[in-house]
Specification:
The chain has about 575 residues and is α/β, with parallel strands linked by helices. It contains 16 helices and 22 strands. The strands form four sheets. It has a nine-stranded mixed β-sheet with strand order 1-9-10-11-12-14-13-16-15, covered by helices on one side. Keywords: Membrane, Transmembrane, Transmembrane helix.
Length: about 575
């Protein structure tokens, strides 16, 4: 096919706000706002753990059947030119944003302001916004998107300002839990093409943007690292026809597979395949890979490109102190036969810094029981059942038929405790590197919980409650023993998470259990007409928790203001690429 048949770059249609956007709220009541501000997701809540596990299992078993990317071949296939009036462009990148209101809105509010002054730099509002994945938590649904994502961004930028900023989005694994149904309805539309004050224009779950001075930004959808579908590859084949050896490419991908490949050598394969087969033949250079998924800021630098993780849009903080200081990309032990040449990348910057990340880890003892009351209650229930089973065996004569009968639930409870602790340690799957430390730590944690139950049983039997007439002992155990044992057991879990985290096990759970809302980050890019790219990594040490209505009644003014002003700063000095 000749170049004459390639569709021209498409512009984004103007945003047309609805009636609610033009009517400013008179209070912070959800009926006035049009959405319900939500608290952070309690990631260790028992029902949520079960639901998340089931969704992950269903995504693994039936993901191919739910995959709607093959159907997108019937959608539009154009590229989008994004250039500002001065021939340059301001562009924002934010990822992992749809969680609790305070953190999500703090970032959205900063993104929406006409200008930010950050460490002496005056940074105007971006003309293009890229959402890098996981636009909603814990799962994709209409209500979750409205309350945790679109609603806060509507409050931050109710209607489109004169420069009419545009928005593009890459789906993450949480957006994929319903097979992209809600994501496509929100970001890929043929009518009402606006998201709050941003216009939307992408026609698929992936996109290509032509930027100033022959820069390009390509947003990929690799379904959590599984593979790139044929329609997507065909789409980017056509995009690649426009690339030249002078082109500089930015890839926005759903996950930092360059980091995950340390334990899962195949994680980077699909991205490497894309670069090797789509970009490399054109002579263009991939200068930057950017991703969310890990909820922090980190930058690796190498001889060819920068690798940036910036998932600080609103979700709980993920630690930085366990990041490897050096990466090999692609990893030498990948099974791909035609992998690119391995190159080394050094960790150049991280936010929060290593010392602060470690201090955050120690907060697990105070935060775990109170941020996750359902989990603490579950622990108390399990320990109460363990205690009653142990007490039933201990209080009966050895060798009697009654004791043998009563010992059955004890065996079951011990097995449940051991298996639960072992699987909580997440032993690596067949696709990852196997480490004995997962099993050792998991089994040790299980034994520690059983030992705690034995100590609790011994102490309970010293008290008079067990000799009361039935069912008073069970009632006393539920009222007295359960809450105390749950709190003590939660501290044992906290100790386990802190120790395991130092060995690279349950690092995510160590921080997910705390739900830390502070230390947020996003990127502001400046593409100059001469081809210089400057990246400003903007950090927010503390998010706002108290809000008020904005007295400014201007249509584009944010509805809600933080009572204490937010103070953004640079996570590191600006990064300049040419």
């Amino acid at each position: 096919m000749s170049d004459d048949h390639v569709p021209p770059p498409q512009s984004i249609p103007e945003a047309h706000p609805g009636e609610r956007a033009t009517r400013r709220p008179r209070s912070l009541d959800p009926l006035e706002l049009g959405f319900t501000p939500r608290k952070p997701v309690p990631w260790l809540a028992p029902l949520l753990l079960i639901q998340t596990g089931l969704r992950t299992l269903l995504a693994m078993l039936f993901g191919a059947y739910l995959d709607k990317r093959e159907l997108q071949n019937a959608f539009g296939d154009g590229t989008f030119r994004q250039v500002g009036p001065d021939g340059g462009l301001w562009l924002d990148y934010v990822a992992d944003l749809g969680d609790g209101f305070d953190a999500t809105y703090s970032v959205a509010y900063l993104l929406a302001q006409p200008e930010l002054e950050v460490d002496g730099h005056r940074l105007p509002r971006a003309q293009t916004l890229v959402m890098g994945g996981d636009e909603v938590y814990p799962s994709a649904s209409y209500a979750a998107y409205e309350d945790r994502c679109k609603g806060p961004y509507q409050a931050a930028l109710p209607v489109s300002p004169p420069e009419r900023p545009t928005l593009f989005a890459v789906p993450g694994n949480h957006d994929w839990y319903d097979g992209l149904t809600a994501f496509l309805r929100l970001f890929v539309r043929s009518r009402d093409r606006h998201f709050a004050g941003w216009g939307t224009g992408q026609s698929r779950s992936y996109f290509a943007m032509e930027l100033p001075a022959d820069w390009w930004l390509l947003g990929l959808d690799d379904q959590s690292g599984s593979y790139l579908d044929d329609p997507q590859l065909t789409y980017f084949d056509e995009v690649a026809r426009k690339l030249t050896p002078r082109s500089k490419v930015i890839l926005a991908v759903p996950a930092p597979t360059w980091v995950k490949a340390v334990d899962h050598p195949t994680a980077y394969d699909s991205i490497d395949y894309f670069i090797r087969t789509i970009i490399a033949p054109t002579g263009a250079q991939v200068r930057l890979l950017v991703s969310g998924d890990l909820h922090h800021y980190a930058r690796y630098t190498g001889p060819e490109r920068q690798l940036i993780t910036c998932g600080g849009g609103g979700a709980y903080l993920y630690p930085t102190h366990e990041l490897p200081e050096r990466l090999e990309v692609p990893p030498r032990d990948t099974l791909a036969r035609r992998a690119s040449r391995t190159r080394e990348y050094d960790l150049a910057a991280r936010y929060p810094d290593k010392a602060r990340s470690r201090r955050y880890g120690w907060g697990i003892f105070a935060r775990l029981p109170f941020r996750n009351p359902g989990f603490t209650t579950l622990l108390g229930t399990l320990h109460t059942l363990l205690m009653l089973a142990m007490a039933g065996v201990t209080a009966n004569h050895v060798g009697t038929a009654e004791q043998r009968l009563l010992s059955v639930p004890l065996v079951i409870m011990v097995v449940v405790a051991m298996l639960g602790a072992a699987f909580f340690a997440k032993p690596p799957s067949a696709g990852g590197k196997r480490h004995a430390r997962h099993w050792i730590l998991g089994v040790s944690h299980g034994l520690a919980q059983v030992a705690l139950a034995a100590a609790g049983t011994w102490l309970w039997l010293k008290l008079p409650f067990y000799d009361w007439p039935w069912p008073l002992p069970a009632a006393a155990a539920a009222v007295l023993y359960g809450p105390v044992s749950g709190l003590v057991a939660s501290q044992l879990v906290a100790l386990y998470l802190l120790v395991a985290g130092s060995f690279g096990v349950n690092v995510n759970e160590l921080f997910a259990a705390q739900g830390i809302e502070d230390s947020k980050a996003f990127l502001r890019f400046r593409f100059d007409p001469d081809g210089t790219l400057t990246i400003y990594p903007i950090a927010v040490d503390e998010v706002a928790h108290a809000w008020q209505l904005n007295p400014d009644q201007s249509p584009t003014a944010s509805w809600i203001l933080p009572k204490t002003p937010l103070t953004p700063r640079l996570a590191e000095p600006p990064i300049v690429l040419r």
